[in-house]
Design brief:
Layout (H helix, E strand, L loop, with lengths): L3 H24 L3 E5 L6 H6 L2 E5 L8 H4 L9 H12 L3 H5 L2 E5 L3 H10 L5 E4 L8 H22 L5 H22 L11 H10 L6 H20 L11 E6 L6 H10 L3 E5 L5 H4 L9 H10 L10 H13 L4 E7 L3 H17 L3 E7 L6 H13 L2
Helix pairs in contact: 1-9, 4-6, 7-13, 8-10, 11-16, 14-15
Length: about 375
């Protein structure tokens, strides 16, 4: 069990060094599809014999270049995404044969128009609601259009068997990732929130899923034994925090580390890289295109109206993870998540009877001191 930190680092190394794997895949004649969002149906990409990869979007390095074309008062994730493509500093973008995006927020879908001038970009028209029959019909047709795009692009045929095999593969991954982050329900958790983030984020850059799943199984089993033996670096009295809101890849150090340096522990992430995306499996007993469309349309992102699923998921997680408080992380200029802070506060404080705080931040470290002060004050009140 002493090598557990090394196993966590393997997932972090997958993120840092994944471009070498991508290069090797390209050298072997494989196709790569870059993606930005949890709404991208990875199963379709796998079924086309290609490999999906998450693109660079978590650093302020290229934002000044992006602001030559994009407004400054735009979400840092969008600016970083475009900036990396514009400057050709993202190896994953460089090796991608094409990029897929979805019409989530207005900023992203307009950025994709500019991105299309740099790289072959396919944009899926995502309905902005989940509870209308026509929304499912539209989204299913978009999944079919995406299949046709990949078939034409790569000269392949996506079969029903290919889709079913891909669904089985990704469901196996989801089950293991759910079991892994579900360890946060234990008291004390045998894993810190930052280690949990390393694994969840690193999974997006691991291309050999069988190898990844074997590593996950080992980590989970080791952590369970560690908990049974009473071993944990987390104090049994540490305040238990759930993070919700925007994607946190670009602010993980600023938020998660600050929370845990202050003596608390992040027991769960509801964000895009966590439960929001992984909680629901794809139905393996029905038509694969229907099943894929249903699973992805059900993701409770703030771009949906209404977005009741997010509140329901968060309320469930507060109870299951026995959270003491919830911190809602909002990226600057992300209007949809910012508006939802009112609803999420009600869900957490009025229905869940727990403490809630929202933090609006960007990729710059300039507000780190202020955030540290606010988080420490919040934890003192728990």
């Amino acid at each position: 069990m002493n090598d557990l930190p090394e196993k966590f680092e393997e997932f972090e190394d997958a993120r840092r060094n994944g471009f070498l794997t991508v290069k090797n895949l390209k050298d072997d004649g494989k196709n790569i599809v870059g993606m930005f969002c949890a709404y991208t149906p990875k199963e379709v990409i796998y079924a086309a014999g290609a490999y999906p990869v998450s693109l660079c979007a978590t650093s302020e390095e290229t934002i000044p270049d992006a602001e030559k074309h994009l407004p400054k008062n735009l979400c840092p994730l969008i600016k970083a995404s475009y900036g990396y493509a514009l400057t050709d500093k993202c190896p994953y973008m460089y090796f991608s044969d094409m990029v897929v995006g979805e019409t989530t927020c207005d900023g992203k879908k307009k950025m994709y128009e500019l991105l299309g001038e740099i790289k072959d970009t396919h944009v899926m028209q995502l309905p902005q609601t989940q509870d209308k029959d026509h929304a499912m019909k539209v989204w299913r047709s978009e999944v079919e259009f995406f299949i046709e795009k990949l078939e034409k692009k790569f000269g392949v045929k996506v079969t029903e068997d290919n889709l079913k095999e891909a669904i089985k593969l990704t469901n196996e991954e989801r089950i293991l990732l759910k079991e892994f982050y579900g360890l946060g329900k234990l008291t004390p958790p045998p894993v810190t929130g930052y280690e949990m983030f390393q694994v969840l984020n690193g999974a997006n850059y691991t291309f050999d899923k069988a190898q990844q799943n074997a590593r996950l199984r080992t980590i989970i089993d080791d952590l369970k034994r560690k908990h049974e033996d009473g071993e944990s670096q987390v104090s049994v009295d540490a305040p238990r925090i759930i993070i919700t809101g925007c994607p946190i890849g670009g602010v993980a150090d600023k938020i998660i580390k600050t929370i845990e340096d202050a003596g608390a522990v992040v027991v769960a992430n509801e964000n895009c890289s966590g439960a929001k995306n992984l909680e629901e499996l794809i139905d393996e007993s029905t038509d694969p295109v229907d099943a894929i469309a249903k699973k992805y349309l059900n993701i409770p992102c703030s771009v949906m109206t209404p977005n009741n699923g997010r509140g329901e998921l968060l309320k469930k997680m507060v109870e299951e993870y026995r959270a003491d408080g919830v911190i809602d992380v909002i990226l600057q200029a992300c209007h949809t998540y910012n508006v939802e802070t009112h609803q999420m506060k009600n869900v957490v404080t009025k229905e869940g009877k727990k403490s809630y705080m929202s933090i609006e931040t960007g990729y710059s470290p300039s507000d780190l001191g202020q955030i540290k002060t606010r988080i420490e004050a919040f934890l003192e009140l728990l």
